[in-house]
Amino acid sequence: MINTIVLLTKRNKPWLIRVTIIGATICALPVLGLLTTRISPLFVIAAGAGLVIVPAVFLNLQTGLGLILLTATATDWYVSKGITPALILTALLAAAWLAQRMVLRRRLDLVKSPVMTPALSFILVAVISLPWGKAMADPFLRDWPGVELIQLAQLAVLVLSPVALILTANLITTKRHLKMLVYAYIGLTTIGILADFLRLPFRLNLRGLTSTWAVSLLYGQLLFNRKLSKWLRLAFIPVIGVWLYIRFFLGITWKSGWLPVVISMGVITLLRSKKLFLLLLVLLLIWVFVSYDWWQEIWIIEDAESGNRFDKWAFLFRHQSTRGHLLLGTGPFGYALYFMTYFPSNAASTHSNYIDILLQMGVVGCVVLAWLMGAIASVGYKLRATPIEDPFISGFVSSALGGLAAVLLAMALGDWFTPFVLNQGLHGFSWTVNSWIFLGALVAVPFVLNNEQEWAKKP
User: Fold this and answer.
1) pLDDT tens digits for 258-273?
2) Up-side HSE of residue 38: CA atoms within 13 Å toward CB?
3) How far apart are CA 129 and CA 335, in angstroms?
4) CA–CA separation, 67 vs 29, rounded Å?
5) What integer pLDDT is reported at residue 218 of this predicted model?
6) Could you state, in order of their start, the residue ranges of all structural domains in the chain?
7) Which end of the chain is less enclosed by CB atoms within 10 A, N or C?
């Protein structure tokens, strides 16, 4: 059976594919109609959309990446228990990619990048930490009903996040793929921020580090893409201004909303011109000095709203229940059980993604995370050391490096790279998957450049 599918696919029978899709849809419609009378119509609508989306994704996997970003940004709607379309699509895209590799190529060949091994290692450590946390659990730990399902949900987030990076690094093979991903995201987030600014009767999902990536991509093209049209250049400047106005002036007490944006823009500026960076840095320091009292008041307000992070971290490591699980952690969602058992009155969030990973996946998980981020940074550094003739790609590489620096800072401030289901639920995946996808796109750039050079040599 498999050999037949492979043979038909290789012979490129488009009529067979169309007949199969149409036939499957006709057969499924009566079933969907019956299901609407028995279960949630929203779930049935999602399943019906899947009949169209899944074949489309399987036939063009790059489309799947765009759909993940589209659904993550366009809506915060979820099917059930916080399961968002972006989460479902990531799992479906991974399954389709694996099926295509194993059925058509009969091997699972990943791009030869220093990022692949730490990304896979992160997945492995996350999986191992679950039974490890169970085996090493405190015998006096309270048995919370349904906790196994919550732990599996947390594990799904920890696994699918690096899966999104791996998929992007392997699926983005041409400059066209990269441009479509970048400009589609710029367009969608611009619509979202203008809707907020103009108080339009709809809202997009602009949570998490959406502002950081939107501004980074805009600013990178503005500084590096000399082929950017005059009209786009004139349009990008006010859009960046709107982002900064909403995140900085209107949301000043939310540090992780604006500080990562500033850091990213600083890194991108430094990569473009050291003199320009020093000039902006001096002006910023003068402003901070002149308005020091105002900045101190903002810091106090923000610290009061989120609680003192340093006190929380010290409190966590004073207790034996957390200090006794430093190797591989307490497992996905595991430390929340200790909090609710031993100090329920202070069972607060860690407000640090680094502490979160340490408690869930232990020192091993933190080492692997550092390895992963270091490998991504090394790819970007090598790309910057190599002259890139294409101005769009040069701008994207700088944007991604700025975004990487912002992610590293945001994780310490309490924003999420790997969301914690107790804080955000599973739909927090929609707030973070953009970071994994664009860092995966950075990993793909060396192979995009090689492909572009190969095609340029062809007569």
Assistant:
1) 899 999 999 999 999 9
2) 5
3) 12
4) 23
5) 97
6) 2-105, 116-457
7) C
Most confident stretch, 61-75, 143-157, 312-326, 436-450:
436-450
Whether 448 contacts 222, CB under 8 Å: no
Q: What 3-state DSSP class applies to 83?
A: strand
pTM: 0.86
What distance in Å separates the CA atoms of residue 155 and residue 364, rounded to the nearest whole number? Answer: 16
Whole-number Å distance between alpha carbons of 58 and 101? 11
Angle, CA of 242, 244 and 246, to the nearest 5°: 70
Q: Which of 230, 216, 228, 224 is nearest to 276 (CA)?
A: 224
Side chain identity at 276, as an amino acid letter?
L
- For the chain, first and last CA: distance in Å? 40
Instruction: Convert the pLDDT of each residue in 206-239 to its tens digit.
Output: 888 999 999 999 999 999 999 999 999 999 999 9
Q: Element (H or E) spanning 424, and its range? A: helix 421-424
In terms of Cα–Cα distance, which of 174, 220, 213 is closest to 193? 213
How many helical (H) and strand (E) elements, i.e. helices and strands, does the chain have?
A: 20, 0
Taking a C-beta distance cutoff of 8 angstroms, is the pair 59, 17 a contact?
A: yes
Q: How many other C-beta atoms can be found within 10 angstroms of the C-beta atom of residue 322?
A: 21
Residue 135 CA, chain-centre distance (Å), reads: 31
Which DSSP state fits 319? Answer: S
CA distance 451 to 428: 35
Please give the structure tokens belonging to residue 258: 């604006």
Alpha-carbon span 12 to 270, nearest angstrom: 49
User: Tokens 């307000």 sit at which residue?
Assistant: 301
3-state SS assignment for residue 298: helix
Residue with tokens 């805009």: 218
- Asked whether 193 and 206 are in contact (CB, 8 A), the reply is yes
